[in-house]
């Protein structure tokens, strides 16, 4: 009976879907985006380490690991974001790469989110360039053709949470000292609409509403319960478990997995693409306000005192 | 490690969002809406009691309590709805008010929903005026600039459930005699699309579909499980817990919380605003039908017999 | 107190919704669709058995049972799909019928989904006709005026899962040998957008994303946890429980239940209606590819070997 049913599963399966042309336009154009960012064609290197992210590709498995190593907290500076997008796009252009595991080399922190110093005391041109880089990171990661697993081996607030949510699967170290969430409102700021879209897609409308308004940082246990992460394992087992999960995802034929991913995520991607310039304008005019700049100064002074 | 991660949370936070202009147009125009409803400018009174709702504002905490006291069941009559909207808008125009707790003075009932007598044997002009008041209540409450907590100390069917869902947070008395839900179909009627939108936003598409078709009334335990309420406490602890929860919401800077709320709720609000007149027309033509009027007569006769 | 609240539930209920004209156009036009499919007017027969589906209508309860009996695995061939749509539409045109229970006469299998032989080595005209029949089945079932309960007494992969999800309620036999899910990607194919819409409506965005990419087949226990089915009962109790559940759904006045269902499901239906021709074109051009035809040949050879 079970065998019959299993056979049935493949015999009388049917159905497929050929998405409308242009579905993976972004993926196909990633080469040109690399050129846009760097001014030079991307290199098909199989192994490369830059200053802030270590990239290792295992050609046997097709799995690359991107290990963030930008002390003290993997903050998302302009330079970091640019390196991140270029590294990921290089992997996407490498036919040997089918999956990417994203993790951190720093103890206790996955990524602390956007770098506040990029938003304080700079020119409008700088804010524009910075925000474009933030958008580019998300556009590249959220709709990547490769399978992506976040191995969250530390805290992951704000932009760090966004990176994790943009992967296909999230494994978090089961350590009550760690937390994850979009905590922007706690700092007096507001997540942009595409952060909101991403968290709604992950935990649903109601949980997202409460989470965003309160700027809630979830413990690993709470994050699992609400669906912000997919599973918890002891910290030392995160890398192994990430590799196991990735193998499950790569057991699926790439083109079918990619089209299914696009079917789910492209509408969300398209919302930002349709309003990308307005989103930049909003950021720049908001961040340029005197009141916001004063708030940022205070936050940075506090942080200096903590360090001192 | 934890300290570092915590510091990271504020150091490298980043991101914000400046919503497109007009985002809070409704909030900003509430003053004029009060004038529209009352024919006179709103008063900045800090404490006022009208016939059906007691409003108390604690200027130390910034928290107002709106206590519904319209026996026997806080039914939403035209007069009640008008008083509700005006009271809430007065609070919104009062800079000292940052949060509103909505509760009932009547034992065992939060609100029983729309008043059936307003929909039976009246003129089309009356039905139009009544339905506008129902819409106005929801438009005001669902997108209010203040933080809103429903202290649900009794049953809350139909329109009462809508009021509770339109708050930011729901605490229900853990009493198995109480129930909550959109039970319209049990009475042969249908919730309008914006009731549907509100429950989908609260409990998700599948649970809403089942709930609406069956007109399901949930016990407190079931309501918690499906996400229709956020937590249960013993009845006598509802007021204290509401105050505690409100303090959590008010710990967030108002402007960041408000913009996040709008980001989540404005698209739903805009759907009614875009179809407000058609929604009124639909209600009036439906309620004016002979078959519906006969049904309403029967329901009212039953209720009279129960009382007698 | 409870009595008062209960009384309140019916006294002060209020609200209804008269959907915009044309809301049930599809339902009203089902008669003509039967004619379109068969070339003759539908018959108001109260009991009929065709070759592949046994239809029994209990005129006392208003409940019909459609029992699929198309060995070996109730695969959805063109002939089966046509008979299914016609049978369901006959029931819809029969005023005595208020609910339909969908189940299988074959041990261990509900339905194995689309028949692969319809998609291999045929003409474009045949693929077009076949895909229209697949669409018609879903359009008819997903928005049916009658209450629909899936009595899932066996495995239900791919198109079988779609049929189950398109009912109003799902009861599955609690047998760990059975599985259910949209496993298309495991076969190298992709569910079309309206399969995707249907599963998102059933289990939410995040679970659907993971489910579709991995082509996940859920055990009954897992299916219950993720919300893909509504309850599990021992296999022998599935028919009885289906009858009990149907009675709950039929306790609601038909017109109110139908309008509520349409309020929830019509937007999803309309998406396919708006892109129906493009969806057919996509299917035909995809299935006609040499690479896909070769894959299908291999799958069929494997199946022949299993049988042999």
TrEMBL record, chains A, B, C:
Gene3D superfamilies given in the database record: 2-enoyl-CoA Hydratase, Chain A, domain 1, 6.10.250.170
MF terms in GO: delta(3)-delta(2)-enoyl-CoA isomerase activity
SUPFAM superfamilies: ClpP/crotonase
Catalytic activity: (3Z)-hexenoyl-CoA = (2E)-hexenoyl-CoA; a (3E)-enoyl-CoA = a 4-saturated (2E)-enoyl-CoA; (2E)-tetradecenoyl-CoA = (3Z)-tetradecenoyl-CoA; (3Z)-decenoyl-CoA = (2E)-decenoyl-CoA
Pathway entry: Lipid metabolism; fatty acid beta-oxidation
InterPro entries linked to this entry: ClpP/crotonase-like_dom_sf, Enoyl-CoA_hyd/isom_CS, Enoyl-CoA_hydra/iso
Main location: mitochondrion
Pfam family, one: ECH_1
Assigned GO CC terms: mitochondrial matrix; mitochondrion
Keywords of this entry: Acetylation, Fatty acid metabolism, Isomerase, Lipid metabolism, Mitochondrion, Transit peptide
Catalytic class of the enzyme: isomerase
Enzyme Commission number(s) of this protein: 5.3.3.8
GO terms classed as biological process: fatty acid beta-oxidation
Subcellular location(s) of the protein: Mitochondrion matrix
Subunit structure and binding partners: Homotrimer.
UniProt family annotation: Belongs to the enoyl-CoA hydratase/isomerase family.
Role description: Key enzyme of fatty acid beta-oxidation. Able to isomerize both 3-cis (3Z) and 3-trans (3E) double bonds into the 2-trans (2E) form in a range of enoyl-CoA species, with a preference for (3Z)-enoyl-CoAs over (3E)-enoyl-CoAs. The catalytic efficiency of this enzyme is not affected by the fatty acyl chain length.
Database matches in PANTHER family: ENOYL-COA DELTA ISOMERASE 1, MITOCHONDRIAL, ENOYL-COA HYDRATASE-RELATED
Descriptive protein name: Enoyl-CoA delta isomerase 1, mitochondrial
Species in which this protein is naturally found: Anolis carolinensis (Green anole)
